[in-house]
Amino acid sequence: MSLPDPGVLDAVRRRRSDLDDALLIVRDGLVADRAGPRRMAVLCAGLRELRADLYEHVAATEGPDGLYEEVRRADPRFEPTVWRLRGEHTHLGLLLDDLLSDLAYGPQDAAGRPALRPRVLDLLAQLVRHRSRDAQLAYDAMAVDLGGQG
Predict the structure, then answer these.
(1) 36 φ/ψ sector (left φ>0, alpha ψ -120 to 50, else beta)
(2) Are 16 and 132 in contact, with CB atoms under 8 Å apart?
(3) Helix pair angle (36-62, 116-142), 10° resolution
(4) Most exposed residue of 10, 102, 127, 134, measured as fewest CB within 10 angstroms of its CB?
(5) Is residue 27 within 8 Å of 34, Cβ to Cβ?
(6) pLDDT by residue (tens digit) across 89-140?
(7) From CA 54, how far away is CA 58, in angstroms rounded?
(8) Model confidence over 37-96: pLDDT tens digits?
(9) How distant is the alpha carbon of residue 89 from its chain centre?
(10) Rounded distance, CA 93 to CA 55, Å?
């Protein structure tokens, strides 16, 4: 099996770093000591950035020269994992779109959105689990035992 192109891995790493930054902004928007419109503005900005970064992550992993295609081409055993991760991208994007829609058209203060915090926390938890599975795929794809004796 050939290893994924180092340029592809670098692109994926950059997208992961961007996602980390956006996750921190979203977490900051959930901090309880922030009040009212400022808290909601930070949360909205973080979720918008997270959505944009997720699009870029999807492009880097699912594109024709992306990590998933290289891994799938190099070793078809990873195809089910690749398809599951692609499905997770779609699901995460829909969750983000729903949250952003609710923020755009709902009450403009945190008091009017009591169910928002659990939804955002659930999204963050799902993103963390996805990132773990994504990293595991990259690790497994590069650490496949090629067999043989020294």
Answers:
(1) left
(2) no
(3) 20
(4) 10
(5) no
(6) 999 999 999 999 888 776 655 555 667 888 999 999 999 999 889 888 888 8
(7) 6
(8) 677 778 888 899 999 999 988 988 888 888 888 888 888 899 999 999 999 999 999 999
(9) 7
(10) 8
Distance CA 18, CA 50 (A): 8
The model's pTM: 0.79
Sign of the C-alpha dihedral, residues 83, 95, 118, 12? positive
The token pair that represents 4 in the structure block: 């994924």
Q: Which residues contact 94 (CB under 8 A, 6 or more apart)?
A: none
Is pLDDT larger for residue 79 or for residue 4?
79
Q: What one-character DSSP code corresponds to residue 112?
A: G
Regarding predicted confidence, which is higher, 78 or 24? 78
**CA gap 23, 127 in Å, rounded:** 9
Q: What is the rounded radius of gyration, in angstroms, for the C-alpha atoms of the chain?
A: 18
d(CA 17, CA 55): 14
